[in-house]
Amino acid sequence: MNRKQITGASQTGNKAETFEAADNIPANPDLSRTIGSVIATRYGRRNMLKGMLGVSAAAALFGAPALTAARQASAAAAAARSRYVFDELEAGVDETHHVAAGYDADILLRWGDPITADAPEFDVMNQSAEAQLQQFGYNNDYVGFLPLNAEGSRGLLCVNHEYTNEEVMFPGLGRQDKAEFTGMTKELVDIEMAAHGGSVVEIARNADGKWHVVRNGKLNRRISPLNTVMGIDGPAAGHPRMQTSADPKGREVIGTLNNCAGGMTPWGTWLMAEENFHGYFWTDQLDADGEPDVTGQAEARQMQRYNVPSMWYAWGKYHDRFDIAKEPNEVNRFGWVVEVDPRNPEARPVKHTALGRFAHEGAETTLSPDGRLVIYMGDDARFEYVYKYVSDGAVSEDRAANSRLLSKGTLYAARFDPDGSLHWLPLVHGHGPLTAANGFASQADVLIDARLAADALGATPMDRPEDVSPRGDGTAYVMLTNNSKRKPGQTDAANPRAESDFGHIIEIKEENGDHAATRGRWSILVQCGDPGIAAVGAQWNPDTSENGWFASPDNSAIDAGGRLWVATDQGRRWDKTGKSDGLYGVETEGSLRGHSKLFFRCPVGAELCGPYFTPSGETLFLAVQHPGTDGTRNLKGFERDSTFEDPATRWPDFDPQMPPRPSVVVVTRQGGGKIAT
Ligand code: FEO
Ligand code: CA
Q1: pLDDT for the residue 29
Q2: 558: which residues sit within 8 A by CB, 6+ positions away?
Q3: 442-485, pLDDT tens digit by residue?
Q4: By C-alpha distance, which of 323, 320, 321 is closest to 311?
Q5: Under the phi-then-psi rule, with left for phi > 0, alpha for psi from -120 to 50, and beta for the rest, what region is 174?
Q6: Ligand 1 atom nearest residue 261's Cα
Q7: Which of 38, 56, 519, 553 has the fewest CB atoms nearer than 10 Å to its CB?
Q8: Total domains, the chain
Q9: Separation of 670 CA from ligand 1 center, angstroms?
Q10: Is residue 677 part of a domain?
Q11: What is the per-residue pLDDT for 64?
């Protein structure tokens, strides 16, 4: 790791881009097993894509002009047959959001909106941690909805606040260099901490079908890394590696951070996934190049495998627990999945160590035919793994017993073989290489060092696994967002493109339709990017329109009709597509398999998170994250990084005194009815 990679700020304009730049350093050391499968990729897999001849390949065969006329006719016919019934939105980039005709996309909750009875009104020029702890946090990511009545007209919105962008959040500050943090103060750090975590907010539907926030809702609350005490359970709870000076028992931790995607359990609790936790740890122990030096650390090997400390925030300068020299075990207490009971503010959130420690993207739940809980999870970094957790027991009517299902079960990592078979490799101490001789003295070690355990088992290093969305029939869809660092010799059947800027989606079919199975089959649903550029190597249903193809699948959802919806995050690269991030309906069945259709798009510089459908299918919640920040240096006419004073958009307020605000958008159909039917 060299100085340029660590400090990176001169090359990257905001936190999201920094996350990605830092992620350029593959921490996974063993990629050798993927070498040599290029042939299988190039030829063997083609058969599995029959009926999905890419537009670029079709153009090569038939010539572009002939294709255009034929394609227009066939695209129109496909649109008529699509299971996603709406008029496709036009792709593009501008300063606001857009939804398909016939739908409303209203702003429901913005960063800073008061969410408790005592909360002060938002005053962007006079922010404080105390106020922020009663207001909606920053960078909304996962959104879940828990109905509070039978009609589903009242409910709790559960929203993750992943991270903060100081340059558009605070006046006069600008982007902070992670080595020096010259403008940061403890006061600003505490506001950042208060803006992380999550929000529980009661919302209700009016007679006219519109939703509003119930500001005085008794269950409304904030969860933050500043002051929310959480329990730790599962095999790693209490282990010496989990003990700190503040918590000598290793069973209690303050807060959660970088909560990216998540999930809701069948018993109505909320799972918050801790993703890029390594970025919050700091040190002043630097090597001769000025880089963080962990060589004196007892856990140097583990820290290096997890890129700790990455020093993206100054928290460790003011809070000793984020300084690895002062509190080296604190980092072992982050990178987990947290369970929150939104209906019981008195219940402490719990970090469930049985689900493993890595850069958790999401935690989507489903059930096996015998009622066991299955949770699919991605480790969002280049060359990391897809995981799933299967509980020992079955879900029942007993809510307390159900939460114990997250304490006892088996964690697996996925191996995607070139013949299309899928193998789930158990991370169980004593099995195979997971022994003391290889550095795993107990199940606690296996879980705390889940990446090292999955390395030892030979799981398949993937192109940044993001959300994994299961469907009840034993199918799951894996979003693989991109991986520009995979070299030609490192491609394999499941990650077939080198230097992939645009990502792909893998479909998993578990054996016998059982999500708890340890084997299954896999295939590629789509390879993303512009199908009109042969070098991109995109694979879409050829009837996908110019508006319908996308890049960098990130979050996803399956609606009540079993249809797949995909939200995108292109990072800084949206100049390579000329499109904003958005939400797409992607066909998974029949002759339209691999057909994609644009439903919603974000304002400039934002990524789209959520998405979440209410059980009735009549409301869709979307989280527009970091508006105005990504890729603006390449935006024609702007060509600079956004700041508080000079942002690329002031969405959603368009008030000259207000910077852009991450916000949750609620989509409903004009005149009522289920979405896209
Ligand atoms: Fe927080 Fe993988 O996006
Ligand atoms: Ca994400």
Answers
A1: 53
A2: 469, 470, 471, 477, 564, 565
A3: 999 999 999 999 999 999 999 999 999 999 999 999 999 999 99
A4: 323
A5: left
A6: 1
A7: 519
A8: 1
A9: 32
A10: no
A11: 39
More confident residue, 359 or 291: 359
User: Which of 359, 332, 537, 309 minimizes the C-alpha distance to 465?
Assistant: 359
What is the residue with the minimal CA distance to atom 1 of ligand 1?
Answer: 260
The rounded mean pLDDT for the chain is: 91
Q: Which helix (H) or strand (E) is 96 found in, with range? A: none
Provide the residue type at 340 as one letter.
Answer: V
Ligand nearest to the CA of 555: 2
Lookup result for tokens 């999401």: 362
- Token duo for residue 398: 């007993």
Question: What is the atom index within ligand 1 of the atom nearest the CA of 466?
Answer: 2
The reply to whether 7 falls in a domain is yes
User: Could you tell me the distance, in angstroms and rounded to a whole number, from the CA of residue 321 to the centre of ligand 1?
Assistant: 24
Atom of ligand 1 nearest to the CA of 481: 2
CA distance to 142, 181, 219, 274, 346, per residue, from 200 (Å): 12, 32, 7, 17, 13
Distances (CA, A) of 60 to 53, 64, 528, 530: 11, 7, 18, 15
Distances (CA, A) of 602 to 47, 519, 580: 36, 38, 6
Residue at token pair 């992620």: 23
Q: Which residues have any ligand 1 atom within 6 Å of their CB? A: 162, 260, 275, 361, 380, 466, 554
* Cα(316)–Cα(303) distance, integer angstroms: 16
3-state SS, residue 473: coil
Q: Which residue has the tokens 């004196």?
A: 296
* Confidence grade of residue 14 (pLDDT, cut at 50, 70, 90): low
Domain holding 606, by residue range, is: 3-669
169 is a domain residue: yes
CA 362 to centroid of ligand 2, rounded, Å: 8
CA of 72 relative to ligand 1 center, distance in Å: 36
* Cα distance between the two ends of the chain: 51
Q: Cα separations (Å) of 236 from 198, 336, 407, 591, 645?
A: 24, 11, 10, 48, 46
pLDDT above 50: residue 48:
no
In tens, the pLDDT along 249-288 reads 999 999 999 999 999 999 999 999 999 999 999 999 999 9
Give the sign of the dihedral formed by CA 629, CA 631, CA 635, CA 641: positive
**CA 205 to ligand 1 centroid distance, Å:** 30
What does the pLDDT read at residue 60?
32
DSSP annotation of 490 reads: G
Q: Which helix (H) or strand (E) holds 59?
A: helix 55-62
List C-alpha distances in Å: 420 to 48, 52, 595. 9, 17, 22
CATH number at residue 417: 2.120.10.30
Q: Look up tokens 């696994």; give the residue.
A: 465
Please report the atom of ligand 1 found closest to the CA of residue 361.
2
